[in-house]
């Protein structure tokens, strides 16, 4: 039977892992390379790196860090941030990542999903979306709006419609990041995760808000998500306590 | 020396990283020239069957590869697409493949499961074999696939996995081994399988 995947997520800034609260007030935690290796040794299922300032600083992704991690970590490795073209994707894959996460760039240019899927296969393309709970309207019937650029710019796009469109363009996975839950340690947004996972047929990754192993139990029993992102509960000093993978997996059995 | 075939859409660098970690002598194969000194070959894979076959053709290594693997019996390990292209035909892009093994490659029925099949899934072994030495049946490996292989001959099926249906996820036929899962991304268990392959190449196990 396929297990629900636990994905350690690292927001990277200048080669360091950083933690935010609702996409703001970042604090730096440690070297990206060391923390990735530590999580691999702790038997994490998968790792995601977001180079969070690559887009806003208009520079390319930190390839050296990607290469260093890929030499030591033998579980799936996804990289996102600052990817604008097929060449950028190829460079990340060549550096040893398996998957590419695209977010704001895909909203600006949805065709990049299609181009990436055709060139490297759908399994390489993770569409990551920032969603915020809003009032239900005719243009946003799900009550969740898509934001971009670190939750600073709102697009007027409906989250469920965007997920369906991204799947049609060839996205192989869809990661649903809740802006409301991000860094709160109060649990995932079950409603939107459930809604999107029922409306697409590709695997959905829940993201934002995990603080205890119970939150994982909640999201896997109340939604059709195939995977969930965890970060604070693994390593953040801002949270009450951290958990080992062993503790988390025991809770999930 | 193990040669890892490097075509643009594959993930040869990841496999090389894993072999380096295990201190196994290895190098990338980008042309027929690179194949001379190797005693075992790995064909890694991500992407589509069609793109993979086109890449292998454009590298002009197919004849030499067949001579080494089918003719001389050099140990061969296919990973993911590297398993699928061993069969005669793939539904993915209606592609004629290598045909070293009899059978075909089919797409998962979307009405029953999410496609692609992504994640850690159990592999049940049908019998013991040196290539799976020190690995228990029902261990979890990492998969990413939308298609699965259907061999004509059940005897070559070494491992099976359930996802909507039960399908073949590992084959062993003489010197030819192949896995649907990504050994290079399956943590310590995956690395053990690569270590076993290296032992077969080195003549330690067979």
UniProtKB/TrEMBL annotation, chain A:
Lyase is among the record's keywords: yes
CDD domains: HisF (cd04731)
Gene3D superfamilies: Aldolase class I
One Pfam family from the record: His_biosynth
GO molecular function list: imidazoleglycerol-phosphate synthase activity; lyase activity
Cross-referenced SUPFAM superfamilies: Ribulose-phoshate binding barrel
Keyword Amino-acid biosynthesis: yes
EC assignment: 4.3.2.10
Catalyzed reactions per annotation: 5-[(5-phospho-1-deoxy-D-ribulos-1-ylimino)methylamino]-1-(5-phospho-beta-D-ribosyl)imidazole-4-carboxamide + L-glutamine = D-erythro-1-(imidazol-4-yl)glycerol 3-phosphate + 5-amino-1-(5-phospho-beta-D-ribosyl)imidazole-4-carboxamide + L-glutamate + H(+)
Involved pathway(s): Amino-acid biosynthesis; L-histidine biosynthesis; L-histidine from 5-phospho-alpha-D-ribose 1-diphosphate: step 5/9
A single GO BP: L-histidine biosynthetic process
Keywords tagged on the record: Amino-acid biosynthesis, Histidine biosynthesis, Lyase
Enzymatic class: lyase
The family this protein is said to belong to: Belongs to the HisA/HisF family.
Chain's role: IGPS catalyzes the conversion of PRFAR and glutamine to IGP, AICAR and glutamate. The HisF subunit catalyzes the cyclization activity that produces IGP and AICAR from PRFAR using the ammonia provided by the HisH subunit.
Known partners and oligomeric status: Heterodimer of HisH and HisF.
Designated name of the protein: Imidazole glycerol phosphate synthase subunit HisF
Organism per entry: Vallitalea pronyensis
Lineage: Bacteria, Bacillati, Bacillota, Clostridia, Lachnospirales
Automatic annotation (TrEMBL), chain B:
Pathway where it operates: Amino-acid biosynthesis; L-histidine biosynthesis; L-histidine from 5-phospho-alpha-D-ribose 1-diphosphate: step 5/9
Residues annotated as the enzyme's active site: 80, 182, 184
Its EC number(s): 4.3.2.10, 3.5.1.2
A GO MF term: lyase activity
Compartments it resides in: Cytoplasm
SUPFAM superfamilies: Class I glutamine amidotransferase-like
The keyword ATP-binding is assigned to this record: no
Reaction it catalyzes: 5-[(5-phospho-1-deoxy-D-ribulos-1-ylimino)methylamino]-1-(5-phospho-beta-D-ribosyl)imidazole-4-carboxamide + L-glutamine = D-erythro-1-(imidazol-4-yl)glycerol 3-phosphate + 5-amino-1-(5-phospho-beta-D-ribosyl)imidazole-4-carboxamide + L-glutamate + H(+); L-glutamine + H2O = L-glutamate + NH4(+)
PROSITE patterns: GATASE_TYPE_1 (PS51273)
GO process terms (BP): L-histidine biosynthetic process
Gene Ontology CC terms, in alphabetical order: cytoplasm
InterPro entries assigned to the protein according to its UniProt record, in alphabetical order: Class_I_gatase-like (IPR029062), GATASE (IPR017926), Imidazole-glycPsynth_HisH (IPR010139)
Domain Glutamine amidotransferase: 4-197
Keywords: Amino-acid biosynthesis, Cytoplasm, Glutamine amidotransferase, Histidine biosynthesis, Hydrolase, Lyase
Pfam families per the UniProt record, alphabetical: GATase
Function of the molecule: IGPS catalyzes the conversion of PRFAR and glutamine to IGP, AICAR and glutamate. The HisH subunit catalyzes the hydrolysis of glutamine to glutamate and ammonia as part of the synthesis of IGP and AICAR. The resulting ammonia molecule is channeled to the active site of HisF.
Assembly and binders: Heterodimer of HisH and HisF.
Name of the protein this chain belongs to: Imidazole glycerol phosphate synthase subunit HisH
Gene: hisH
């Amino acid at each position: 039977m396929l297990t629900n995947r636990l994905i350690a997520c690292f927001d990277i800034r200048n080669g360091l892992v950083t933690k935010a609260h609702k996409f703001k007030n970042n604090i730096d935690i440690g070297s990206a390379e060391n923390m990735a290796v530590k999580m691999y040794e702790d038997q994490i299922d998968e790792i995601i790196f977001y180079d969070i300032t690559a887009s806003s600083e208009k520079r390319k992704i930190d390839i050296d860090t990607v290469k260093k991690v890929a030499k030591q970590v033998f579980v799936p490795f996804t990289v996102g941030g600052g990817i604008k073209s097929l060449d950028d994707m190829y460079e990340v894959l060549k550096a040893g990542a398996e998957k590419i996460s695209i977010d704001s760039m895909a909203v600006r240019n949805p065709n990049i999903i299609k181009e990436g899927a055709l060139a490297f296969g759908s399994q390489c393309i993770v569409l990551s979306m920032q969603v915020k709970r809003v009032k239900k309207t005719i243009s946003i019937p799900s009550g969740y709006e898509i934001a971009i650029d670190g939750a600073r710019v709102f697009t007027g796009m409906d989250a469920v419609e965007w997920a369906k469109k991204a799947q049609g363009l060839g996205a192989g996975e869809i990661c649903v990041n809740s802006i409301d839950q991000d860094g709160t340690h109060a649990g995932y947004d079950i409603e939107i995760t459930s809604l999107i996972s029922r409306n697409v047929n590709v695997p959905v990754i829940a993201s934002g808000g995990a603080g205890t192993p119970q939150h994982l139990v909640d999201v896997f029993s109340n939604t059709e998500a195939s995977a969930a992102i965890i970060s604070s509960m693994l390593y953040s000093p801002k949270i009450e306590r951290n958990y080992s993978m062993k503790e988390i997996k025991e809770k999930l059995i | 020396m193990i040669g890892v075939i490097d075509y643009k859409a594959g993930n040869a660098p990841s496999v090389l990283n894993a072999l380096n970690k295990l201190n196994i002598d290895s190098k990338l194969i980008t042309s027929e020239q690179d194949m001379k000194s190797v005693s075992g070959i790995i064909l890694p894979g991500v992407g589509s069957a069609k793109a993979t076959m086109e890449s292998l053709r454009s590298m002009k290594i197919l004849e030499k590869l067949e001579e080494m693997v089918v003719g001389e019996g050099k140990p061969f390990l296919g990973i993911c697409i590297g398993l699928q292209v061993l069969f005669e035909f793939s539904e993915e892009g209606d592609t004629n493949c290598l045909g070293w093994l009899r059978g075909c490659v089919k797409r998962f029925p979307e009405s029953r499961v999410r496609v692609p099949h992504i994640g850690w899934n159990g592999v049940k072994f049908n019998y013991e074999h040196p290539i799976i030495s020190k690995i228990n049946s029902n261990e979890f490996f990492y998969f990413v696939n939308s298609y699965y292989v259907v061999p004509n001959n059940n005897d070559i099926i070494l491992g099976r996995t359930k996802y909507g249906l039960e399908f073949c996820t590992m084959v062993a036929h003489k010197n030819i081994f192949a896995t649907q899962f990504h050994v290079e991304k399956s943590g310590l268990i995956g690395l053990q399988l690569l270590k076993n392959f290296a032992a077969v190449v080195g003549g330690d196990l067979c």
